[in-house]
């Protein structure tokens, strides 16, 4: 798992991960973590229940065993299984010194991001659009905010490339060069309804600005953490997987049905997806992870916190469209001037 | 005379109130009354203005003879609901700009604070949890002043403005301690708060201030002025904090530091800072004046969404308070 071997003489202190939910049922215990459920039955369930209160990351295994009058080996066997299942960490003094390879990070990142993205996919705005309950302002606002986000490649990808670490520079340079024209694809769709100068001068919502500014700030500070966050956003794009492709097609189909004026806009969304698929962006992050030197716990946490925050910013992006355009139904949003106020 | 949608834009309407078969539309400087049909027409004009559709389309939407449409648009202009884009703005002095800003600030603040959260809190439908959440995010926002205030000094080019911005920073940089005191009175420990993670919209506020600081120090200063505008007199903030304390059993020890902080702002006369800065600006071309104004209004919209973000997160009982950072070993 790590570049440095763990030292067996260091006392391990088991911790039930803070994000695990424990559900007790007659004769069994169900541990929920991320998208997994681990079921313990019979003796395993009993032993877990006995030691659960002491899985605080402060008490060594031997001390727990002595307190419970259990054999340490029995505890270790169960804890080892629970660690493998990802619900328990065996803390030791070496934790901060452990290094994680880029590819190990890739696996952890992917697992976590799929979980963090669930809130984005559950957002009520999708359902409102699919059922025709979203207002005209929300639907057009959705198109404008997507445009602003994609157009902001100029900002965050430019900042990322210009602040890149040596091993990340070729990836970030290539990504910027491949993406900076994509805002124009969305603009073409918007031009079916609005004049070009209005689109160019229109202003994103604060929530979209929040997402872009967060990307900008990360891009200036850490190439790897920035891309770990950007990768979460890339994971929401349809990369050609047939299940995901079908749900995207269904979404656009419903949107065309309920909002016929969005026909050309949807064509532009699809054109953008195809452009992304043709570029093979799905592989970019694997290549980056292969090329980075092993990461410290601090670096891993930094990059994963950026990815988690990015998911929260993406929920905010959806919230902004849903809530703000519902309350302030002006679209497109033009900047104010001396006379507008 | 030919007329097109590119000639007009809609003025900002801050509130629409139905009243006796009419609608009252509140602008920053007047109230315009429209009947049901006129209001419907006005809304159609508003969505037509930024579109690619022609005058004939609007005439069809309004069921109005095309020849009569220009007259209707001019009537809307006369009422103050539309304005002409092409009439040129003149350069103005910094103080003239301050006059214009002061004239609209109260409308902006009413927009920023019209989020239903405030009414909910004041009417007893809020909770101690929401009050706590608001305080935690205020702590982060105030601490994050260290991310944007010194940046605004670094990006200023005029000595007098640098000086004023630096003085403001020197007076404000550690004010987050007031909120820490309040939160400790609510039972939190210092590390719990100091190591916690702000909501995305709280972070967005300071990131937006950083963006403004990099763009134009006056754009930054107008944002700062909007925020300081909320603390010009005790009447604007006292009722919320005191009533929340009474309604939700918030201990007085948690409220006292907040008042102390706000009193300090008043003592430093931070609400006058924008005027002091603008006094040093001899001339503002209309493009710069519009840009600065636009930053101010964007900040208003940020405050509204910030409030929304706080309410949505803290009203869910299962959400962690305070929010802790992710750790690959512990989580």
Write the layout of secondary structure elements.
The complex is a heterodimer of chains A (341) and B (331).
Chain A: E1 13-16, E2 21-25, E3 28-33, E4 36-41, H1 42-51, H2 61-68, H3 72-84, E5 88-91, E6 99-100, H4 102-116, H5 118-121, H6 124-130, H7 136-151, H8 153-162, H9 169-179, H10 182-190, H11 196-201, H12 206-221, H13 223-234, H14 242-258, H15 263-279, H16 284-291, E7 295-296, H17 297-327
Antiparallel strand pairs in A: 1-5, 2-3, 3-4, 6-7
Helix pairs in contact in A: 4-16, 4-17, 7-10, 7-17, 8-9, 8-12, 10-15, 12-13, 12-17, 13-17
Chain B: E1 8-10, E2 15-19, E3 22-26, E4 31-35, H1 36-48, H2 55-62, H3 69-79, E5 82-84, H4 94-112, H5 116-122, H6 128-143, H7 145-154, H8 159-172, H9 176-185, H10 190-194, H11 200-215, H12 217-228, H13 234-248, H14 252-268, H15 273-279, H16 286-314
Antiparallel strand pairs in B: 1-5, 2-3, 3-4
Describe the structure.
The complex is a heterodimer of chains A (341) and B (331). In chain A, the strands form three sheets. In chain A, strands 2-3-4 form a three-stranded antiparallel sheet. Chain A has a two-stranded antiparallel sheet with strand order 1-5. Chain A contains 17 helices and seven strands. Chain A is mainly α and 341 residues long. Chain A has two domains: 83 residues, Outer Surface Protein A, domain 3, CATH 3.90.930.60; 229 residues, Heme oxygenase-like (Heme Oxygenase, Chain A, Up-down Bundle), CATH 1.20.910. Chain A is 62% helix and 9% strand. With 331 residues, chain B is mainly alpha-helical. Chain B has two domains: 80 residues, Alpha-Beta Complex (Outer Surface Protein A, domain 3), CATH 3.90.930; 221 residues, Heme oxygenase-like (Heme Oxygenase, Chain A). Helices cover 63% and strands 6% of the residues of chain B. In chain B, the strands form two sheets. In chain B, strands 2-3-4 form a three-stranded antiparallel sheet. A two-stranded antiparallel sheet of chain B has the order 1-5. In chain B, a hairpin with a 4-residue loop joins strand 3 and strand 4. In chain B, helix 6 runs parallel beside helix 11, helix 6 crosses helix 16 and helix 12 packs across helix 16. Chain B is globular. The mean pLDDT of chain B is 93. The chains are: A mainly alpha (341), B mainly alpha (331). At the A-B interface, helix 12 and helix 17 of A face helix 4, helix 11 and helix 16 of B.
């Amino acid at each position: 798992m790590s570049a440095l071997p763990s030292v067996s003489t260091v006392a391990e202190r088991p911790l039930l991960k803070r994000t695990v939910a424990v559900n007790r049922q007659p004769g069994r215990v169900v541990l929920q973590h991320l998208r997994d459920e681990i079921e313990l039955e019979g003796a395993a369930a009993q032993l877990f229940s006995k030691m659960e209160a002491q899985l605080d990351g402060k008490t060594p295994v031997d001390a727990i065993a002595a307190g419970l009058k259990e054999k340490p080996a029995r505890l270790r066997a169960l804890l080892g299984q629970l660690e493998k299942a990802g619900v328990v960490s065996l803390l030791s003094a070496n934790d901060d010194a452990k290094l994680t390879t880029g590819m190990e990070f890739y696996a952890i990142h992917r697992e976590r991001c799929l979980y963090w993205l669930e809130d984005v996919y559950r957002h009520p705005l999708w359902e409102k659009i699919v059922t025709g309950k979203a207002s005209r302002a929300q639907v057009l606002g959705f198109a404008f905010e997507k445009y602003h986000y994609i157009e902001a490649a100029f900002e965050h990808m430019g900042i990322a490339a210009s602040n890149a670490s040596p091993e990340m520079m070729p990836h970030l340079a290539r990504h910027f060069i491949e993406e900076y024209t994509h805002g124009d694809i969305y603009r073409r769709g918007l031009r079916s309804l609005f004049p070009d100068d209005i689109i160019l001068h229109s202003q994103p919502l604060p929530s979209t600005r929040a997402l872009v500014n967060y990307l900008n700030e990360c891009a200036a500070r850490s190439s790897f953490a920035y891309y770990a966050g950007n990768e979460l956003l890339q994971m929401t794009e349809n990369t050609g997987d047939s299940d995901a492709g079908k749900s995207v097609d269904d979404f656009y189909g419903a949107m065309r049905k309920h909002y016929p004026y969005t026909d050309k806009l949807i064509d532009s969304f699809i054109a953008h997806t195809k452009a992304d698929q043709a570029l093979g962006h799905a592989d970019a992050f694997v290549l980056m992870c292969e090329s980075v030197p092993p990461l410290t716990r601090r670096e891993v946490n930094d990059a994963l916190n950026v990815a988690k925050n990015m998911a929260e910013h993406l929920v905010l992006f959806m919230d902004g469209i849903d809530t703000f355009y519902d309350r302030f139904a002006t679209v497109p949003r033009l900047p104010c001037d001396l006379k507008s106020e | 005379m030919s007329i097109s949608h590119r000639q007009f834009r809609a003025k900002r309407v801050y509130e629409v109130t139905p009243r006796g078969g009419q609608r009252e539309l509140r602008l920053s400087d007047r109230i315009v009354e429209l009947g049901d049909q006129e209001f419907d027409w006005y809304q159609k004009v508003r969505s037509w203005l930024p579109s690619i559709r022609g005058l004939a389309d609007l005439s069809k939407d309004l069921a109005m003879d095309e020849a009569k449409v220009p007259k209707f648009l001019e009537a809307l202009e006369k009422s103050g609901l539309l304005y002409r884009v092409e009439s040129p703005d003149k350069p103005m002095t910094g103080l003239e700009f301050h006059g214009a800003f002061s004239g609209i600030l109260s409308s902006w603040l009413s927009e920023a604070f019209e989020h239903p959260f405030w009414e909910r809190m004041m009417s007893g439908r809020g909770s101690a949890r929401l009050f706590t959440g608001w305080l935690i995010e205020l702590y982060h926002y105030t601490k994050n002043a260290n991310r944007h205030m010194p940046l605004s000094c670094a990006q200023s080019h005029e000595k007098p403005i640098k000086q004023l911005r630096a003085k403001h920073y020197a007076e404000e940089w550690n004010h987050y301690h007031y909120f820490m005191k309040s939160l400790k009175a609510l039972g939190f420990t210092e590390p719990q708060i100091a190591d916690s993670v702000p909501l995305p919209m709280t972070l967005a506020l300071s990131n937006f201030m950083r963006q403004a600081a990099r763009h134009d120090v006056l754009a930054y200063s107008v944002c700062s002025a909007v925020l300081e505008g909320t603390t010009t007199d005790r009447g604007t903030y006292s009722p919320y904090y005191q009533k929340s304390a009474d309604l939700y059993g918030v201990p007085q020890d948690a409220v006292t530091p907040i008042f102390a902080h706000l009193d300090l702002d008043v003592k430093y006369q931070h609400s006058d800072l924008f005027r002091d800065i603008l006094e040093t600006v001899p001339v503002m071309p209309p493009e710069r004046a519009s840009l600065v104004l636009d930053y101010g209004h964007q900040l208003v919209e940020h405050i509204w969404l910030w409030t929304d973000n706080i309410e949505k997160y803290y009203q869910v009982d299962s959400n962690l308070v305070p929010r802790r950072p992710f750790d690959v070993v512990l989580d």
